[in-house]
Amino acid sequence: MIKTVFITGAGKGLGFSLAQKFLRAGTRVFAGHYQPSNELNDLAKSFPQTLTQIPLDVTNLDSVKYAAKLFSRSALHLDILINNAGVMLETRAPLLELDLSNHPLFETLDVNTFGPLRMVQQFLPLLEKGEHKLIINISSEAGSITNCWRESEFAYSMSKAALNMQSKILQNHLKPHGFKILAVHPGWMRTEMGGADADIHADEAAEGIFNLSMKKWNLDDTIYMDYNAQPINW
Ligand SMILES: NC(=O)c1ccc[n+]([C@@H]2O[C@H](COP(=O)([O-])OP(=O)(O)OC[C@H]3O[C@@H](n4cnc5c(N)ncnc54)[C@H](OP(=O)(O)O)[C@@H]3O)[C@@H](O)[C@H]2O)c1
Fold it and tell me: Whose CA is nearest to atom 7 of ligand 1?
């Protein structure tokens, strides 16, 4: 059984659905939240023993270090880290209309790409003590270079392609220690980011990602896939 999971960006959207799903399965959930979340506060009333809220800004190394410190006060090891926090800050403006002196690329990379790397670096000693040794990076189909159809959205797409590369490098680096890294496209979800016209509820993606977390993975298996375990071309 999975005993502990840390989820970043758990205050709303997919992160919140994942927190609910793991709590209902009896897992101890550490929910990183950027802004205070009323939904998480309500959830904590239903799971007072197993939900711990941890303030977290993944762009701030001190905040990530402090989150690891707070975690260590309550638990000795971490089974699964889910790097879910993400931003989509840009419009779909074409190239000639982009303001490249003030483009959201750096902020997007800071949250979507460097955020997960900061988390892995600071939580690695806790993950090494865990039995499950699983890191799930919430990526996107937008990070696939082979399948790319977009003609704009540079920042978001580049941040997820770089997250995919990060996932592969981490898999190479951590495989000798028994780690599995997944880069998962959660589907087009009806969240603040995905909008009201999207295909699925975040609970459906959370159900799929929970199932992925339960699978016995071969460390050489593909790592880039959707929430139904269908492989995606890099
Ligand atoms: N929605 C989709 O259709 C879709 C499709 C493909 C991939 N994804 C990916 O799925 C993940 C979840 O997306 P979502 O749709 O649930 O988005 P969302 O509803 O906008 O939620 C994003 C979460 O990330 C948090 N966050 C933002 N900046 C942060 C920071 N600096 N430090 C820590 N947390 C921060 C937010 O916190 P606050 O609420 O406090 O700001 C929020 O909890 C993202 O990685 C996204 O790229 C989404």
Answer: 140
pLDDT value, residue 93: 87
Q: Give the closest residue (by CA) to ligand 1 atom 20.
A: 193
Give the residue numbers marked as catalytic. Answer: 156, 160
Cα Rg of the chain, angstroms: 17
Residue 137 β-bridge partners: 83, 183
CA torsion 137→196→19→6, rounded to 10°?
30
Give the span between the Cα atoms of 190 and 12, in whole angstroms.
11
Q: Which tens digit of pLDDT belongs to each residue from 120-153?
A: 999 999 999 999 999 999 999 999 999 999 999 9
Candidates 1, 3, 7; CA nearest to 137 is 7
Q: Which of 18, 62, 84, 227 to mutate to test the pocket of ligand 1 (most atoms within 8 A of CB)?
A: 84
Structural domains in the chain plus CATH codes: 4-226 (3.40.50.720)
Q: Which atom of ligand 1 is nearest to the CA of 112?
A: 45
Q: Decide if 17 contacts 206 (C-beta within 8 A).
A: yes
At residue 121, φ and ψ (nearest 5 deg) are -60, -45
